[in-house]
Specification:
1 helix; mainly beta; 5-stranded antiparallel beta sheet; globular; 5-stranded mixed beta sheet
Length: about 180
């Protein structure tokens, strides 16, 4: 009986995670550059521009540089159940897609960690550990690593105005490891 209880306890608490760590370093995704159509690409020939002379060669236009991501919101992680730090950014990419980006993340490893957008307030201390599953939240997926820079896609249908915070949520124990208030 004691062996069964020990096995269940080890499975639930996964104490070895105190000693494990992983790091992910992802770049901000780049959208494909938009090319400006050149005159050679039109189906019908056109007259050269008035400033061009027959001896001046025309060159196709060069692709434009990809547009830089636009920051929609940002916040700083505060510690909850575990000491944590890092920056949260919500970015809109050139193609209109949105990502939640964790930068400089440093938290503890743990079982069943998720990244959530939430409508809950960020409350410091123990009072803030359990508020994120009380209201609306959007699960963006499993935390990729407990350290580093990482990106999480935000579904196109998500209404960002419905969410005011981010939590690194431990689903196994229904507790926030860290949270950030989002500021536009």
């Amino acid at each position: 009986m004691a062996a069964i209880a020990l096995g269940v306890g080890l499975y639930l608490f996964q104490p070895w995670r105190i000693f494990t760590s992983s790091t992910v370093t992802e770049d901000i995704p780049a959208a494909a550059p938009l090319a400006i159509p050149s005159q050679e690409s039109t189906a019908e020939p056109s007259a050269p521009p008035a400033s061009a002379t027959p001896s001046e060669p025309t060159t196709p236009s060069e692709p434009a540089a990809p547009a830089a991501p636009r920051e929609l919101a940002t916040g700083q992680l505060i510690s909850h159940e575990h000491a944590s730090s890092g920056t949260v950014r919500i970015l809109e990419l050139a193609d209109g897609s949105r990502i939640l980006r964790l930068e400089g993340l440093d938290t503890s490893d743990g079982p069943d960690l998720k990244v959530w957008l939430s409508d809950a307030p960020v409350i410091e201390g123990v009072a803030g550990w359990h508020v994120f599953d009380d209201g609306a939240y959007l699960d963006l997926g499993a935390l990729k690593a407990n350290k580093g820079d990482q990106n999480y896609e935000i579904p196109a249908a998500a209404v960002l105005g419905d969410y005011t915070s981010v939590s690194i949520w431990c689903a196994r124990f229904a507790v926030s490891f860290a949270a950030a208030e989002l500021n536009a």
